[in-house]
Amino acid sequence: MASIKKINTRKYKITVSNGYRPDGRKISRARTITVPQSVGGRGIEQYVAHEAEEFERTVKSGYCEDGEMKFEEYAFRWLDRQTKYAPSTLASYRRMLERTYPYIGAIKLNRLRPVALENMMVELRKRKCRGKMIQEKTVQKYLTVVSAVLSDAKRNEIIEKNPARMIDLPRAETVQQYIPTDEEAHRLLEAILKEKEPYRLYYLLAIYTGCRRGELCALRWSDFSLSRKGGTLTVNRSRSMVAGKGITEGTTKNGRSRVIALDEIMADVLEDYFQKSWKRERRKNKDFLFTNQSGGFIHPDTFTKHLRKIYDEYGFPKTFHLHTLRHYFVSAMLHSGVDKQTVAELAGHGDTSFLERTYCHPQLKLKNEAAVQMATNLFLPEGCHYRSQKREKYL
């Protein structure tokens, strides 16, 4: 129960006890209030009792005590509690938060206001990466991670509102992912088939399953169930490079496993690779798909750099990268009529929202087909003078 001490006629000190610290010290919070002049003499006692009750509720719910914790300390604890993120994702969050600490790290949670976050973003916009100013989209990613920490504090009833949600952000330029045309994809496939193992299988699986780079690197033979008519692949882990820790194996990006169906041809490719790889000498990790001649793991960057050489050799656009194979898989599924929910599950997305924002942009070929269809369904009638004029006049 709150303790009330009268200082003078209209000033009172309210003290609330809330347990003990690990070192045995008592946890208590105090607040001094002044009764407004608008409250009559008979209502002072009732006013003070109400304020004491509200203050005690605030302290007991955790808003007061934990709210005194600095943002940096709470963010550090938040990172330690996260288990659903892949190691590489968690390492990225840690690096991004460390860059925000000089601006908001020393501010107490219950004192952190939108203006402090806006000032932080102003300073972050001055940063450079590889000699170039960082983009607005990157700056907003910093705020997104900070918001995740503050949302956790709100969920735990430490703060009442998330100040990161109150900021009016400028529109960030969105970089549209380039999706290869079917002709480009077929030409790329011909180039991949000329490659030696394990590159050939790695890139084929990237195209036909849409798996991420780290997921492919972590594949084991036990993840496959093959038959003459095809098979399935269960994706439930990922291998990635984590700063300070090297190559680390963890869960998939969303922490969930998924099952991908394989056709008969892909099953034959895997069976052929299995027969050849099993006969290699000095294999130390026979259960993993992608290992070098001595049985050691292949660094994920090796596959990225090798594919860049293929792109350059065959004259593919500079915008192509390893993730382009995944983009093509997702877009090909959508354009073939596969429903969004199924594609989202195959790609390892929790729902279709990210899928719609990132991948649901049609190829130019489909846009041209749409234009032709529009002209067929609704266009100027035969005999209209516009139809009789030659196009050269307008070129």
In short:
This protein has 15 helices and 10 strands.
What does this structure look like?
It is a single chain. With 395 residues, the chain is α+β, with helices and mostly antiparallel strands. 46% of the residues lie in helices and 13% in strands. The chain has 15 helices and ten strands. The chain has helices at 44-61, 71-81, 87-105, 114-124, 136-155, 182-193, 199-209, 213-217, 264-278, 300-313, 322-335, 340-347, 353-358, 364-377, 385-388; strands at residues 3-6, 11-20, 26-34, 128-129, 132-133, 224-227, 230-235, 238-242, 246-250, 258-262. A three-stranded antiparallel β-sheet has the order 1-2-3, covered by helices on one side. A hairpin with a 2-residue loop joins β4 (128-129) and β5 (132-133). α2 packs antiparallel against α3 (87-105), α3 crosses α4 and α11 (322-335) runs antiparallel to α12. The longest helix is centred in the middle third of the chain and has 20 residues, at 136-155. The termini are far apart.
Kindly provide the radius of gyration, computed on alpha-carbon positions and rounded to a whole number of angstroms. 30 Å
In terms of per-residue confidence, which ranges show pLDDT below 50 for 5 or more consecutive residues?
A: 390-395
Shape descriptor: elongated
Distance between the termini: 85 Å
- Give the ordered list of helices and strands: EEEHHHHEEHHHHEEEEEHHHHHHH
Structural class: alpha+beta
Percentage of β-strand residues: 5-15%
Major sheet summary line: 3 strands, antiparallel
Q: Tally the helices: what do you get?
A: 15
- The residue-averaged pLDDT reads 83
Percent of residues in helices: 40-55%
